[in-house]
Amino acid sequence: MASTTEAVDRIRPAPVPGPARPGRPESHGRSAALFLAPFVVLYVLFIIGPALYGLVMSFFDTSMVKPGLRSFAGFDNYAEALGSSDFWHSLWHTIWFTILTTPPLVVLALVFAILAERVPRGRWFFRLAFFLPYVLPSAVVALIWLFLYTPALGLAGKIVTSVGLTEPNWLGDQNWAMVSLAITTVWWTLGFNFVLYLAGLQEIPRELYEASAIDGAGPWQQIRRVTIPLLGRTTALVVVLQIIASLKVFDQMYIMTDGGPNFSTRSVLQYIYDVGFTSYRTGYAAAASTLFFLVVLAISAVWLMLTRRQSLGWAAKAGGEG
Question: How far apart are CA 27 and CA 13, in angstroms?
Fold first, then answer.
């Protein structure tokens, strides 16, 4: 009897283990909340909290020389900022800097990313070369370009004079100061957009290029009909991030020109810094900061809608042609 039972046990197939049961959603939610808790606490303490306090402070005559919020001012600080020519001039300088820097930082990043992706050898070197300036601190970048812009000694002046042109006063002339700062910024921050475009290029299936090559498309046609349309969402992201970054310019202007000459390069953030930490009018500075935040939010929203609509149009066109 025992031998028969043993024989049956040998013949009987081993039970197949069932699929592993996933953990309870509640346990996953608690784990995620525990991991996020330190970041949420720091974000509330150092971002949300100060922002809300700054909004409250903008309605008071707060000053750095006396404690507390001081007397209630209502919308007087906002009315003063909207009626200040210095505020509007600094805002225009910021917008003009954004106009000078955003197109080259988007177009050059796309061009260099495509070239670096298509180079057969040494791809890592070109990626490092384009991204390396981005990791430099703003003070180091300012010192490098201050030396390059030094009259009669800097490399920028020697390049201009070598082709028979007159060297301009790069940072001392109102017509050239903002352009010089824009050139510095393009060299410095190009690497960030370059990396974003590289990530977008890697998401494009290679089969699309192979199919277009079979259809007789050359490299330029592939870029125009495949690469650029499929990078529409990446371009929308790059444009929005670049506009926000250019509108928040402060470091290079403050270090290289201190807003000069004749306040022609003073950004709105430097204006807020001056009235808040030099004139000690932190309530008025908070109101100006709130107005600038609304301007950045409005411009970013408009550009985001335009670029998204354009990217959807490119994608639909590419799908129709395919």
Answer: 36
DSSP state of 44: I
DSSP 8-state assignment for residue 60: B
C-alpha dihedral over 282, 287, 288, 293, to 10 degrees? 120
Are residues 131 and 123 in contact, defined by beta-carbon separation less than 8 angstroms? no
Is it true that the peptide bond before 261 is cis, omega within 30 degrees of 0? yes
CA torsion 42-46-49-54 (nearest 10°) is -170
> 191: how many CB neighbours lie within 10 A of its CB?
21
Residue 177, token pair as written in the block: 């100061």
Average pLDDT, the chain: 86
C-beta separation of 281 from 171 below 8 A? no
Quickly state the pLDDT bin for 152 (edges 50, 70, 90): confident
Compute how many other C-beta atoms are within 10 angstroms of the C-beta atom of residue 235. Answer: 22
Domain ranges of the chain: 87-321
Residue 60 forms beta bridges with which residues?
Answer: 72
Token pair, residue 119, equals: 């180079």
Considering only CA atoms, give the Rg of the chain. Answer: 29
Question: 87-321 falls under which CATH superfamily?
Answer: MetI-like (1.10.3720.10)
Count of alpha carbons within 13 angstroms of residue 305, beta-carbon side: 5
pTM of the model: 0.84
- Report the alpha-carbon distance of residue 294 to residue 19 in Å, rounded: 53
